[in-house]
From TrEMBL:
Gene3D superfamilies: 3.30.190.20, 3.40.50.790
Gene Ontology cellular component list: cytosolic large ribosomal subunit
Organism: Buchnera aphidicola (Cinara laricifoliae)
Gene (name only): rplA
Homology family: Belongs to the universal ribosomal protein uL1 family.
Known role: Binds directly to 23S rRNA. The L1 stalk is quite mobile in the ribosome, and is involved in E site tRNA release. Protein L1 is also a translational repressor protein, it controls the translation of the L11 operon by binding to its mRNA.
Protein name stated in the entry: Large ribosomal subunit protein uL1
MF-aspect GO terms: rRNA binding; structural constituent of ribosome; tRNA binding
Length: 235
């Protein structure tokens, strides 16, 4: 049996496994735990009462978090013409066409986001087997297939995130760093929660959220009392 570290033992004592907490209390508990030797991300897990086999019930979208994610992301841009200079000016880490496709195939650079101009999709579409499983295939719904490369890059650098459920109907999403203030994490979480709530399929009857929890990269999860979120409206 794997031995539990003293740090994990300390952190486990901070929360009761089956107890449900308000989002404010949960954030306070996470920030009181013994930290790792790096600045941990803070993540939310939403277990939804959806049937992911039905396309109309799948949840996906994008949202600009008010305080960003605190994460420096690596962005690749497929584009042509005057947009090449624009992409380089506004923070793309690599701009190209066939040369960028080769980098992605060889995985010599691990990109967190791929943005593409519409005219490049014949090339980008062939990379679907690589980009799709990583959740970074350009999509107009996420603003990553765009004629406005400048806006797409600025939004990405400000903290725009994409969310989508997996095959089990679960959405995993980062919403900040543990060194954010309590109010920054609170507002980021509520912005994400409200957006996912608005994405509820019209065909879905009954409960929407089976379970919501938050955690840091290395901490145990803390269950959120999602009923307590229903009366909170933000922003």
């Amino acid at each position: 049996m794997k031995k539990i570290s003293k740090k994990m033992q300390f952190n486990l004592k901070k929360t009761e496994i089956k107890k449900k907490y308000t989002i404010n209390s949960a954030i306070e508990i996470l920030q009181s735990m013994k930290p790792a030797n790096f600045i941990e991300s803070v993540d939310a897990t939403f277990i939804l009462n959806i049937n992911s086999k039905k396309s109309e019930q799948n949840i996906r979208g994008s949202i600009l978090l008010p305080h960003g994610t605190g994460k420096k992301i690596k962005i690749g841009v497929f584009t042509t013409g005057k947009n090449i200079k624009i992409a380089k000016k506004y923070g793309a880490d690599f701009v190209g066409m066939e040369d960028l496709a080769v980098i992605i195939k060889k995985q010599t650079i691990k990109f967190d986001l791929i943005i593409a101009s519409p005219e490049t999709m014949n090339l980008v579409g062939k990379l679907g087997p690589i980009l799709g499983p990583r959740g970074i295939m350009p999509n107009p719904k996420f603003g990553t297939i765009s004629t406005d490369i400048k806006k797409s890059l600025k939004d990405a650098r400000k903290g725009k995130i994409n969310y989508r459920n997996d095959k089990n109907g679960i959405i995993h999403s980062n919403f900040g760093k543990i060194n954010f203030s309590k109010i920054q994490l609170y507002e980021n979480f509520l912005t994400l929660y409200n957006q996912i709530t608005l994405s509820k399929p019209n065909q879905l009857k009954g409960i929407y959220y089976k379970k919501i929890s938050i955690s840091t990269t290395m901490s145990p999860g803390i269950i959120i009392d999602h009923l307590s979120l229903q009366n909170i409206v933000y922003p």
